[in-house]
Design brief:
The structure is a single chain. The protein is built from nine helices and no strands. The chain is elongated and about 60 Å long. 30% of the residues are buried. The chain is mainly alpha-helical. It has a single domain, classed as Tetracycline Repressor, domain 2.
C-alpha cells in the first residue's frame, strides 16, 4: 500500500509541474506519467482519467493551503487574529508559485465544466466561509455570512488579479485585512 501512495503522490506532483509548465490543462496523462517516472497505464490505473488526476493535484494544493492556515492559526490568540491569519495564508508566497497559480487558474475553469471539480470548489469555499464565520460571530459582526462571503470573494478575485499581474500579494492582503477591520469595527460604532 505504501508503494501505491508513493506512486499516487509522484503523479500528483508531476501533474502540478506539467500544468505549471504548460500554463493550462492541455497536458496529457502520458506527459504527467513520464515526469513521474511511471507508465501511462499506471497513471490510469490509479486515477482513472486525466480529470481525476488533476483533481488529485488540486486536493494536494488545497491540503498544502490548509497546512499554511493551520500554521498561522496556531499563533493567533483572538478571533480577529485568527481571521487575519486566514487572509494571510490565502496570500502566502507558496500560493504564488507559478505551478500553483497555473493549477488554480485551470481549476477555476475546469469547475465550470466538471461536476467533480465544481464540487471540490464548493467544498473549499464552504470551509473558508465556515472558518471565517466562526470567528466573525465571536466578534458580533452584524452579518457574518455576508462578511465571510465578501472576504472569500475578495480573496479569490484578488488572488487571480495578483497572480496574473505577477506582483507580490502584500497589497492584496492589506486590502482584505482593511475590509475585515472595518467590518469588525462597524458593530462597535453604534
Amino acid at each position: 500500500m505504501r508503494v501505491e501512495a508513493t506512486r499516487r503522490d509522484q503523479l500528483v506532483r508531476a501533474a502540478i509541474e506539467e500544468i505549471g509548465n504548460a500554463g493550462s490543462a492541455s497536458v496529457t496523462v502520458s506527459q504527467i506519467a513520464k515526469r513521474a517516472g511511471v507508465s501511462s497505464a499506471l497513471a490510469f490505473h490509479y486515477f482513472g482519467d486525466k480529470e481525476q488526476l488533476f483533481l488529485g493535484a488540486m486536493r494536494h494544493i488545497l491540503r498544502e493551503y490548509q497546512k499554511e492556515v493551520r500554521r498561522l492559526l496556531s499563533s493567533a490568540a483572538t478571533p480577529a487574529e485568527r481571521l487575519h491569519a486566514v487572509i494571510r495564508a490565502s496570500f502566502a508566497p507558496s500560493n504564488f508559485e507559478n505551478r500553483v497559480v497555473s493549477a488554480w487558474l485551470v481549476f477555476y475553469v475546469t469547475a465550470q465544466q466538471s461536476a467533480d471539480a465544481a464540487n471540490l470548489l464548493r467544498v473549499y469555499r464552504r470551509r473558508l466561509r465556515s472558518t471565517l464565520m466562526h470567528d466573525l460571530r465571536q466578534l458580533n459582526v452584524s452579518d457574518p455570512f455576508v462578511v465571510a462571503e465578501s472576504i472569500g470573494a475578495m480573496i479569490d478575485g484578488l488572488y487571480i488579479r495578483q497572480a496574473l499581474s505577477a506582483q507580490d500579494a502584500v497589497a492584496a492582503t492589506a486590502l482584505v485585512e482593511r475590509y475585515l477591520d472595518q467590518a469588525i469595527a462597524a458593530p462597535n460604532q453604534h
